[in-house]
Design a protein that fits this description.
Belongs to the short-chain dehydrogenases/reductases (SDR) family. It contains 5 helices and 6 strands.
Length: 215
């Protein structure tokens, strides 16, 4: 006690004993989320398409004393998503406390110039993979009796921005998906929330692009 006031711990809360899966955790927002969760004591598994980048991050986290593991996964592949969840289930004894659907991408194009390939790519990466991973994680989250899903959306999901019609549609869909899953899975002690950042300096876009996106 100092001056009659109670001493406040530097770490007011802890995630020790909790488990988490963060997609796209080797860079940008996902990297920060992994470090935050691990810093509070959670055991974290993350994934990346790039084996070298993943190995480099795992070495860094080990040096910091974080409990982080990882595997290579292309989230566009349904089979690889299923393999990822099998790995997570095995590693965390078929229980998961936290799923962060972070991985996403974009292509800046005017609507009239967007192709069917652009549409399929963005919908599959940003929306379908997150929905499917949530489905796969459902029994693990339910088994933990304290499940949490966090979707990383964007202000683009609620505000019109130039050149981002398809990207914005995926994020608007994520916002609605969050509401539905929150209602459907509340009875299973699974909370579902969305975080919608504004402009964040990440590596989603190439140098020279005129807008910075969130994931």
């Amino acid at each position: 006690m100092a001056n009659g006031e109670p001493r406040i711990s530097e770490q007011r809360w802890s995630l020790k004993g909790q488990t988490a899966l963060v997609t796209g955790g080797t860079r940008g927002i996902g990297h920060a989320i992994v470090e935050e969760l691990a810093g509070f004591g959670a055991r974290v598994h993350t994934c990346s398409r790039n084996q070298t980048e993943l190995n480099d991050r795992l070495k860094e986290w080990k040096a910091k004393g974080f409990q982080v593991s990882g595997s290579v996964c292309d989230l566009l592949s349904r089979t690889q998503r299923e393999e990822l969840m099998k790995t997570v289930s095995s590693e965390f004894d078929a229980k998961l406390n936290i799923l962060v659907n972070n991985a996403a991408t974009t292509k800046m194009k005017r609507a009239e110039n967007s192709t069917s390939e652009d549409y399929s790519f963005l919908m599959s990466t940003n929306l379908e993979s997150s929905f499917h991973l949530s489905q796969l994680a459902y029994p693990l989250l339910k088994a933990s009796a304290n499940g949490n899903i966090v979707f990383i959306s964007s202000v683009a999901g609620a505000t019109a921005l130039p050149g981002l019609s398809i990207y914005s549609a995926t994020k608007g869909a994520i916002n609605q998906l969050t509401k539905n899953l929150a209602c459907e899975w509340a009875k299973d002690s699974i909370r579902v929330n969305t975080v919608a950042p504004w402009a964040v300096r990440t590596t989603v876009l190439k140098p020279g692009d005129n807008i910075l996106l969130t994931a």
